[in-house]
Design goal:
Shape: globular
Largest sheet: 4 strands, parallel
Structural class: alpha/beta
Number of helices: 7
Distance between the termini: 30 Å
Helix content: 25-40%
CATH superfamily: NAD(P)-binding Rossmann-like Domain
Order of helices and strands: HEHEHEHEHEEEHHEE
Number of domains: 1
Radius of gyration: 17 Å
């Protein structure tokens, strides 16, 4: 996302925990400035919002084990509140293709639905994107691509929608750069549907 915005000629500030990480250092070589902080530190979020026009909001997903579903919701709400207080022009929230009105019973998806509902209730220009599964996940051990058999949460004859992270970054960058066109929309994003 940050790189796609930079390629579009935008000034970009990336919110990072560790400015010395390999990823953070790579961003700076591309002309991206860093705002150092943590999504559990409200003051650092507020500092990062100072002087910017748009926000791309994505939180660490709870299945990663780093945070709970409740903490993910707290982070999403904190970003929204800070963006509103700072007078941000537009916020793009990256949710999930399985999020929506009906509870799924899976905290990973329901937490995103809660954040979506919170955003819709705020007087803040927002677009919600719901990406399908990331293609890059299929390269992880245990997915079966190395043996020629695809194993994932699906039935034998059920297609699964996916999207590549690079495509997702470009799409979200376009949305953030064109708030008038996408304001108030919820967009399902996928580039392919694969089956076994």
């Amino acid at each position: 996302m940050a790189r796609a915005l930079r390629r579009a000629g935008r000034q970009v500030r990336a919110f990072v925990r560790n400015p010395h990480s390999e990823v953070a250092r790579a961003l700076t070589t591309e002309g991206i400035t860093l705002a150092i902080g943590d999504l559990f530190d409200l003051a650092s979020i507020d500092r990062a919002m100072s002087g910017i026009q748009g926000v791309f909001s994505v939180q660490t997903s709870s299945p990663a084990g780093e945070i709970s579903d409740e903490q993910e919701v707290m982070q999403g709400k904190a970003i929204a509140d800070s963006a509103l207080a700072a007078g941000i022009r537009h916020l793009v929230y990256s949710s999930s293709g399985a999020a929506g009105k009906a509870p799924t019973g899976m905290g990973h998806f329901d937490s995103k639905s809660t954040i979506e509902d919170y955003l819709r209730a705020l007087p803040l220009s927002t677009t919600i994107t719901r990406p399908a599964s990331f293609m890059e996940m299929m390269l992880l051990p245990g997915m079966g691509l190395n043996s020629g058999h695809f194993f994932f949460f699906m039935q034998r004859h059920q297609a699964m929608q996916m999207i590549a992270l690079q495509d997702l970054g470009r799409i979200n960058a376009q949305i953030l750069c064109n708030p008038e066109r996408y304001r108030g929309q919820t967009l399902e994003l996928a580039s392919q549907a694969l089956d076994r």
